[in-house]
Amino acid sequence: MTTDWRKLHADHFRNRRCLVTGGAGFIGSHLVDALVELGAAVTILDDLSGGDRRNLNPAARFIEGSILDPRAIASAIQGCELVFHQAAKVSVPASVADPVSYFRVNVEGTQTVLEAARQARVRRVMFAASSSAYGDSPILPKVETMAPLSHSPYAASKVAGEHLMRAYATSYDIDTVSLRYFNIFGPRQNANSAYAGVIAAFAKRLLGGQPPVITGDGTATRDFTFVHNAVHANLLAARGERRLGGEVFNIATGQSSTVRHLAERMAALLGRADLPPQFAPPRPGDVPHSRADIALATKVLGYAPLVDFESGLRATVEWYRAALA
After folding, report:
1. Does any domain span residue 202?
2. Are 176 and 239 in contact (CB under 8 A)?
3. Continuous segment of H or E residues that includes residue 251
4. Which of 53, 109, 231, 297 has CB 3.0 to 4.6 Å from 303, enough for a Cys bridge?
């Protein structure tokens, strides 16, 4: 699936120097591609622990390094006006198994990025926050004014990142914004990790002739959001003229589907309706229901989803069909 970024964002990013942390990863690499298409001068900082060299855009400058390394960040951020902070450890169950590394990378790493941005006089930092902040609250849709309710070390680390963003925006001459992603999916999402996202995991099993495995009873709901929507939100947040002051915005579609519907839809798209889902015990840290209220992002950022669930799923399934062949 292609998106005409020039039509959406014109020349807002032409010749602007941008840093994308985690730019070899799933969301980060799509963001880099859009920025390059828009004429930005892009630097990628990635230690390749979760990213892939094959995702690197050849038109971007690449520095292999960790967000925990102040020298690597200082080198990458020099002269940049905008920072898109996408680098993170991203699995809820992996964070339950290894909370210390999640704190170090997601909290200490974010602090290191912010301090480097302050020293480099960056104008604005866009932070990849997470809908896991809402925990298992039964209230739907999720609204940004709800109190955080972290149910995993991953969720807690992302909420801590939001608070760091707001603290720096209110304490220093730097602007920040936190974008709470809701179940982002799309091409390049790693299907080979033990902690793969649900769509990637389903694709791998179905294309391997195995039934998808649902943790829980399949009634859990998610606001599945195609990756180009997340990219668009980052670009809107970066180019906005008004100060954002560390504000938090939901980035999603405002619609939700059950995980069972997702499994059945993917099986149909891949011609494997003969593989009904199997069920496994719920994973620690998982939440039952998720759907976003996106009114605030629409009002302040001008955000609206570019790609709906069905269109995004079709494009993603076709990418996995080719990538996992």
Report:
1. no
2. no
3. strand 247-251
4. 297
Residue 251 pairs in a beta bridge with 181
Contact, 160 vs 111, CB < 8 A? no
- Copy the structure tokens of residue 133: 């902040």
User: If you search the block for the tokens 């020039």, which residue do you land on?
Assistant: 6
84: CATH: 3.40.50.720
Query: Tokens at residue 125, please?
Result: 């930092």
Q: Annotated active-site positions, please?
A: 154
Tokens of 236: 């809107």
Query: What total of structural domains would you count in the chain?
Result: 1
Q: How far apart are CA 87 and CA 228, in angstroms?
A: 17
Residue 133 placed within a domain: yes
- The length of the chain is 325
pLDDT tens per residue, range 65-99: 999 999 999 999 999 999 999 999 999 989 999 99
In 3-state terms, what secondary structure has residue 127?
Answer: strand
Largest CA distance in the chain: 58
Place of tokens 């070390």: 153
Angle at 190 between CA 185 and CA 192, to 5 degrees: 135
Look at residue 135 and tell me if it is in a domain: yes
Q: 3-class SS at 124?
A: strand
Q: What is the pLDDT of residues 21-61, one digit of tens each?
A: 999 999 999 999 999 999 999 999 999 999 999 999 999 99
Does residue 108 form part of some domain? yes
157 is in which domain, residue-wise? 5-186+224-255+290-307
Q: Could you report the per-residue pLDDT of 85-135, keeping only the tens digit for each?
A: 999 999 998 999 999 999 999 999 999 999 999 999 999 999 999 999 999
SS3 of 159-228: the string is HHHHHHHHHHHHHCCCEEEEEEECCEECCCCCCCCCCCCHHHHHHHHHHCCCCCEEECCCCCEECCEEHH
- Contact (CB, 8 A) for 118 and 158: no
3-state secondary structure of 77: helix
Q: pLDDT band at residue 195, thresholds of 50, 70 and 90?
A: low
